[in-house]
Write a structure and sequence with these properties.
This protein is of the alpha/beta class. It has a single domain, classed as Rossmann fold, CATH 3.40.50. It contains seven helices and eleven strands. The chain has a seven-stranded mixed β-sheet, with helices on both faces. α3 crosses α4 and α6 runs antiparallel to α7.
Length: 205
């Protein structure tokens, strides 16, 4: 499983670092997971809302199985952040262009609003930070009250810390429950529920 986390100025620290820690640990445990950071426009790094500079690799969604989009600054209207990226339009456009049959697009917190701006949540079950639910619904998403919502090639998660649960679910989905359990025990983290999962036949559990 090749995962790339999208970085941009004003993203929330934990939206990025949380999933990166989980997926990095899965890789070091020999579970067949790789994770890296990617930024649009050849930027060598991006800075979180907390001032943490993070190095970024080139924009290459074609080399990923999963692309994770963090949130940041949306509820407060802070700039830079999600609202600025939506207004700029380039990142939503790049996310829309990245869609292909074997790519899973995922989001943490208000990263779902970037996916919405890309036209990728219309009519689909999804979730986001509780303060942004109204905007997600207004953008066409079908909000589900769950920690992680898996709708096949679209996987969204709730508020900031839900990125940990998102990443653990991705490890389980791609590498199995035992693999996710290895990482969870190593991190001494108790996963939070609920998980909303669409089944191939259209049922959920």
């Amino acid at each position: 499983m090749r995962v790339r986390i999208v970085v941009f100025d004003g993203m929330d620290d934990l939206d990025v670092v949380g999933p990166y820690s989980v997926l990095g640990m899965a890789g070091r445990a020999g579970l067949g997971v790789s994770v890296g950071l990617t930024a649009l426009g050849g930027r060598p790094h991006a800075t979180t809302v907390g001032g943490l500079p993070l190095p970024a690799g080139p924009w290459a969604p074609q080399d990923a199985d999963v692309l994770i989009v963090p949130g940041g600054g949306y509820a407060s209207g802070a700039a830079p952040g999600v609202r600025a990226e939506i207004a700029d339009g380039r990142l939503p456009g790049a996310l829309a262009a990245a869609v292909r049959p074997d790519l899973v697009l995922a989001s943490v917190c208000t990263g779902a609003l970037l996916l919405a701006a890309a036209g990728l949540v219309t009519g689909r079950p999804c979730t986001t930070h509780h303060r942004a639910v109204g905007d997600l619904v207004a953008a066409g998403g079908r909000h589900v009250e769950a920690r992680v919502v898996d709708d096949g090639d679209l996987v969204t998660s709730g508020g900031v810390t839900s990125g940990l649960d998102l990443a653990l679910w991705l490890v389980e989905r791609f590498r199995g429950a035992d693999a996710a359990g290895v990482v969870q025990r190593a991190m001494e983290y108790e996963r939070r529920e609920p998980l909303w999962l669409v089944e191939p036949a259209g049922t959920t559990k």
